[in-house]
Design brief:
The structure is a homodimer. Chain A is an alpha+beta fold. In chain A, 26% of the residues lie in helices and 25% in strands. The longest helix of chain A has 18 residues, at 282-299.
Chain lengths: 334, 334
């Protein structure tokens, strides 16, 4: 076989049969001769530097689920499914990862967003709720976290402040929330208006449950504020009224933590005018996306995306009226 | 600050100054208040399934070095550097990762290529020679490896069969090499002809050194042969005369291990007619690339690439006369 043919590459019964005839290596090996399978993924953390800051992407996991009918509100479902399939997601399904960022500024250990909470690990059969075990694998003691900084108050970003037993998962941390999101979700008037929308009703109830009894421990921050050393809050509203991104700067190095400027990039960074079901003000969210990515592309800025595939870091490029995410190369050293 | 501006996103002294004026959070925190930096990357292994086979990408590391003048033989250096820079490599530099694949077929534990050898770890300041420590992190005992399968006999693929002290790194493994590569590198006539070319001279000397005294332990395999259960050798010559890729099949699931059909995809998968310095027959190597990627793109085949960024798995798409690599999404579970 000296020609590379389709059959060579793609195998199938024909090739296996032909190969079996070639020699003794194809004979079945004794069962159980090989090492047992490990059955376990590598720990989901990744380290990188931004100037003198040591940063760690720490994933809370990923969910793969049948694409809901209105996952993309303003395009036909078939078109959204085609985009997911073109990105090699399983047919009919969508995969959404969830990845907080941990920034060690040298003086503060800052966790930006905190996942669904370890209580979701069992319920999701290990798919999500991985943050605490991945932090442990990374050698991070939750007691050493100084600040938990929320980009907005959706459950996948905020519920992880509670351990499974309801206690504080990061007992020594200041909890910082965007003032505008806090005002929105804590408004009785807004909550009353949301009762006719099951998704929004759930979100309002969730915020109240998660923050019940700890309202006084929460620091509200404003856009433009340096919320921790070198970490500045940026207005990227639309996804939620107080949705916030962060500029991290150390020396001449920069990182943009986009939070949910998009949901999964395969659909919503590629197609910035597509409206994900979870955007509260989809028109504003789309405007924010264009502004954010136009600037990031022009500056070749490194971006961390909560819903980007782990390690959730990349560069954005303009591609006509669309954008393309170029994931970072994994560096085996830091 | 309610408008997202370039200054918001990209920071700089102006913004930091403005933010400092906003409140007490910007005051310097006490030195040493945060947890100490870890200073260490996560272990470089990644698990995935191909049918019932448990596969593990295990990286040997990556080298970043000034791009040599003839790194791409048939385009001006400025063009090659521009492609590297467009892929966000450091200016003037090129980054090349090295990632063997470990396949547990259930009956055999097969390591495909084995890196530079742990002896290179110190010399490279930890950049390469990581395979053994990453295997250990993945819970793999080198004694449990049944087969070490070489795609070809370049040092980054083959030298890792030797431990730093010269003993066998995988003492119980059968060592399998492509018959055509073995014949090429072991030929005295070829070695004599190579003496005028420093790179080739070094390669010939290396093969002889690495295999000295273990020639009888080496099994030579042919293209088309099922070299281990479900793993079939494919002719992808050009990079070297015996350069081999592998089709891994379990049930209806398939994986193509391309080995060095390209060097780094940012340059040579994107531009399949570019000739990397290390291709022995660059015309044949380019033909192989087109055939391999045309088929892989048509079939949407999962590909592992030795020089792809860790976890070194992706899908290839046609893009006019070029190709584009779409890395897999990291799955936090297997």
């Amino acid at each position: 076989m000296t020609e590379l043919t389709r059959r060579d590459l793609l195998g199938g019964a024909g090739m296996a049969g032909a190969a079996l005839a070639l020699g003794p290596l194809a004979a079945p090996a004794p069962a159980g001769a090989a090492a047992p399978p490990a059955g376990k993924q590598a720990p989901g953390f990744y380290r990188y530097k931004v100037g003198s800051f040591e940063c760690t992407s720490v994933t809370d996991g990923a969910r793969t689920f049948p694409m809901p009918d209105m996952f993309v509100r303003n395009v036909p479902k078939a078109e959204a499914l085609a985009a997911a399939e073109a990105a090699h997601m399983p047919k009919g399904m969508v995969t959404v990862p969830f990845t907080p960022q941990l920034i060690n500024t040298g003086s503060k250990l800052v966790l930006i967003d905190c996942g669904f909470g370890a209580g979701m690990f069992e319920q999701s059969k290990g798919a999500i709720g991985q943050l605490m075990s991945n932090l442990a694998a990374a050698g991070i003691d939750p007691k050493s976290v100084d600040v938990v900084l929320m980009s907005h108050l959706h459950p996948d970003h905020t519920n992880g402040i509670r351990a499974a037993d309801g206690s504080m998962a990061f007992p020594n941390a200041e909890i910082m929330v965007p003032a505008k999101d806090w005002a929105f979700w804590m408004s009785e008037e807004n909550a009353a208006k949301a009762q006719s929308n099951e998704m929004m009703k759930g979100y309002f109830a969730n915020v109240r449950k998660v923050y019940a009894g700890i309202e006084n421990r929460v620091t509200r921050y404003e856009w433009g504020q340096e919320v921790a050393p070198g970490i500045t809050a940026i207005d990227t509203h639309g996804h939620t009224p107080g949705h916030t991104s962060f500029a991290v700067q150390s020396g001449s190095s920069k990182l943009l933590i986009q939070s949910d400027v998009t949901n999964i990039p395969e659909l919503f960074l590629r197609n910035p005018d597509w409206h994900v079901a979870y955007d509260i003000d989809p028109q504003e969210a789309a405007k924010t996306r264009h502004r954010f990515y136009d600037m990031a592309a022009a500056e070749k800025a490194l971006i961390a995306g909560f819903h980007f595939s782990f390690p959730s870091l990349g560069y954005v490029e303009k591609d006509g009226s669309k954008y393309r995410l170029q994931p970072v190369r994994w560096s085996p050293v830091i």
